[in-house]
Amino acid sequence: MAFMASESESHKACVVTLFGGSVIAESVSFGEVDMTAATFALSHRLRPLLAAIYLGTAGALVSVPAFARGPEGVADVAEKVIDAVVNISTSQTVEAKGGGDGRGAIPQLPPGSPFEEFFDDFFKNRRGGKGGGDLQPRKTNSLGSGFIIDTAGIVVTNNHVIADADEINVIMNDGTKTKAEIVGIDKKTDLAVLKFKPPRQLTAVKFGDSDKLRLGDWVVAIGNPFSLGGTVTAGIVSAKNRDISSGPYDSYIQTDAAINRGNSGGPLFNLDGEVIGVNTLIISPSGGSIGIGFAVPSKTVAGVVSQLQQFGELRRGWLGVRIQTVTDEIAESLNIKPARGALIAGVEEKGPAKPAGIEPGDVVIKFDDKDIKEPKDLSRVVADTAVGKEVDVVIIRKGQEETHKVTLGRLEDTDKVLVAAKTKDEPAEKPVTQKALGLDLATLSKDLRTRYKIKDSVKGVIITGVDGTSDAADKRLSAGDVIVEVAQEAVSNAADIKKRVEQLKKDGKKSVLLLVANGDGELRFVALSVQ
Question: Residue 276: enclosing H or E segment and its boundaries?
């Protein structure tokens, strides 16, 4: 950045250039001009500029503190660990599909069209008569980053770097290229472990403790951005435990160290040369770094890598509950101050929580001596706990704390299929309904169960309509939902609900807590305003 001022074309320019945190005033000459006289003759507009130049010159004479230039340890870290950082090269065969971009498909013409023969001949005989040669399967290549954690040839990277690859190669800092195979992957944390046969003695790095990081701590990212291997960038820890809703166990380290495409899977180091994160993704409108990058913390990485090395898969703990956020309205309904914890919305019949006495409506505030502030906390700590371990679970039930002992099961790594939206047939006869809380309510009948496909095991009062301007509509209640409980008391007809709501109003309550089931019996809590 430069500021320039000149008295005339014959005089040399007066320049102040800023380099990083240093201010350097370059040598300036004004020819035969008497500076003493010239100073007084300067216009009002130029005086602040000359003052800035003098201040800059004075600043150059004073030694700039090391912290202003960044930590001097970055060079030492880079020199120490650079040989442990590798490039990950993958190739895969992609089935080309014509028509996706309008350039590869044969035009669809009506039979007998005068152009049919022309286009048929053109597309089938172009490129040496191979018939749509540009639609043939082709190989694509991609590059990412990784790092060696064991001199036996164990490498950690991101799962998305090697996903669907037909061939994986590890390229070391000196250019040596070696084929690698997958030891194991974990899609939920986007991590993968590879193994290759070392062609020579390797350099390995170890994990540090990401829990000890503080905001503002310096970190160093090394990787392969845009195929530029061995690129070193530095920055600070901008935030911790960042949840960006990219997965069930989000708890990223946010950094402003430059991370770009190709850095994925590369290490984030502290100034001791320890890996405290795996660079995974960035937020950017352009695809390049804007100083918002995210790394999986080493505490998570170390646990995942250990299990992938030992079992080739993840064996996560399982509590067997469905949970949701404790909103301010729900907390008020349950007499919990302040709003915190994870609300149990449902309990699996064959899950570990059921025999331990945990019920829907309980709020988990501590698990295995770890505080639970929100549902994600519970998901992460349960997943990180060993299968078969007995733990203490502290809950709040009806305003009182209770401790339950639970022996964790194993989470099956299967994706649950979402229930398709139900089509509602026209009723044979209109049910008798009552209105409350912006809802049309009716007693469950055989006809209504059939129409809304509600299982026989689901008991309560069915919603047959929702006022689009009501709080219930904002909370996404819909026709076919069944209200099981109101203020933690079971209900069987619309009159029960109206009675409970009126009582809550008299008691001065601002909201009412509903336990709502869908047709399959899956439960969730919803707090509605009673005003």
Answer: strand 275-282
Decide if 519 contacts 422 (C-beta within 8 A).
yes
The pLDDT tens digits for 209-218 are 999 999 999 9
Q: Which domains are present in the chain?
A: 2-66 (no CATH), 142-311 (2.40.10.120), 317-410 (2.30.42.10), 434-529 (2.30.42.10)
Pairing of strands 321-325, 342-347: antiparallel
* Cβ-Cβ contacts under 8 Å for 270 (sequence gap 6 or more): 208, 213, 217, 218, 219, 220, 276
Q: Is 404 an annotated catalytic residue?
A: no
Q: Which of 89, 145, 186, 190 is catalytic?
A: 190
d(CA 461, CA 494): 6
Dist CA 102 CA 120 (whole Å): 16
With a CB cutoff of 8 Å and minimum separation 6, the contacts of 53 are 14, 16, 25, 28
Can 11 be counted among the known catalytic residues?
no
**pLDDT: which is higher, 128 or 470:** 470
Q: Is the pLDDT of residue 27 over 50?
A: no
Would you call 478 a catalytic residue per the annotation?
no
Q: What is the DSSP string of 90-131?
A: EEEEE---TTSSSSSSPP---TT-TTHHHHHHHHHHHHHHTS
User: 């390995």: which residue's tokens?
Assistant: 204
According to the model, what pLDDT value does residue 55 have? 32
- Between CA 247 and CA 240 the distance in angstroms is 16
Q: One of 89, 160, 368, 481 is an active-site residue; which one? A: 160
| 142, 145, 238, 264: the active-site residue | 264
Q: Cβ of 407: how many Cβ atoms within 10 Å?
A: 12
Residues 404-459: tens digit of each pLDDT: 999 999 988 654 333 333 444 444 455 667 888 888 898 888 888 888 889 888 99
Which tens digits make up the pLDDT trace of 1-12?
443 433 333 333
Q: How many residues does this entry show for the chain?
A: 531
Nearest-angstrom CA–CA distance, 388 and 371:
21
Long-range contact list for 130-139, CB < 8 A, 24+ apart? 132/98, 132/104, 132/106, 134/96, 134/98, 134/104, 135/96, 135/97, 135/98, 135/104, 136/96, 137/93, 137/94, 137/95, 137/96, 138/93, 138/94, 138/96, 139/91, 139/92, 139/93, 139/94
269-283 pLDDT per residue, tens: 999 999 999 999 999
- E strand spans, 151-217: 154-158, 167-171, 177-186, 191-196
